[in-house]
Amino acid sequence: MMTDLNNVTIEVSGAKQGGFYGILCIAHEQERGVLVGRLEYDRGVVQLIGLLCGILNTIPCAKNDPLPKRILLKLLRVIIRIYVEVFRGTPMMVQAMVIYWGYAFLNDGATLPLIPAGLFIVSINTGAYMAEIVRGGLASVPAGQYEAAHSQGFSAPQMYLYIILPQALRNMVPALLSQFVTTIKDTSYLWGAMALQELMGRGMILMNSYNSTVQIFAIFALMALIYFIVCFTLSQIVRAYQRRLKGTR
What is the pLDDT of residues 30-74, one digit of tens each? Predict the structure, then answer.
């Protein structure tokens, strides 16, 4: 798949494609299914970042714990807090421009590959929000559950795996899925920040090939419809899960 910016056409497997079909060609490689794989990879990285940061933020630290452990935990919590506040307190577009073009500034104009850079930016931005969701979910578990686990001789990994996480997950999943919906919409910022040709980018390229207001409106209407279908489907999944939780309580 290739985009010719001079002629404003989209070439897929050797055939030029324009119009609405071009909007749907949102991956850069010819291999089929590569976009799905990237989305799954990105979601996995985001969940891992959020889970690790959330757990590290809630590990108990008592006064009678060894001094190295207390110092290490406090240092990790300061680092995580800075990371969370910085990436939650600044727009994704600004973060993308700073990281993408900052790398080019430091490397004599050499830029990062677009797709890996986009995945990295989305991952660290969404990971900051996920970290707070996980921290809040873990904090919602009563302190007595932690004490009961310790009294039964559970190690820290066993306590989180078998007792804490199953309870916290009930509170976290709706917020995690809602954040995933937001992340899908936020990827449109990457076109303006670093010209990553996702759905919005393809639509902008196609828009330049038409002069009719009706055609341009139709292109953006179709993009909006695609975003709506994806996000609405995920939102319904969130609502269904919330209704299921209410029915089991």
Answer: 333 344 445 445 556 666 777 777 777 777 666 777 888 788 888
**Residues whose CB falls within 8 Å of the CB of residue 90, separated by 6 or more in sequence, listed in order:** none
Residue whose pair of structure tokens reads 């996920």 in the numeric block: 130
CA gap 137, 214 in Å, rounded: 47
State whether the Cα torsion 122-128-133-134 is positive or negative: positive
Neighbours of 221 (CB within 10 A): 10
Residue 105, token pair as written in the block: 């500034």
Q: What is the DSSP letter of 30?
A: S
Nearest CA to 5 out of 245, 241, 207, 239 is that of 207
DSSP 58-87: H----TTS-HHHHHHHHHHHHHHHHHHHHH
Per-residue pLDDT reduced to its tens digit, 82-131: 988 999 899 888 888 898 889 888 888 888 888 888 888 888 888 888 88
- Express the helix, strand and coil content of the chain in percent, nearest 5 each: 75, 5, 20
| Nearest residue to 43 (alpha-carbon basis) of 126, 101, 105 | 126
Q: What is the DSSP letter of 161?
A: I
Neighbours of 101 (CB within 10 A): 15
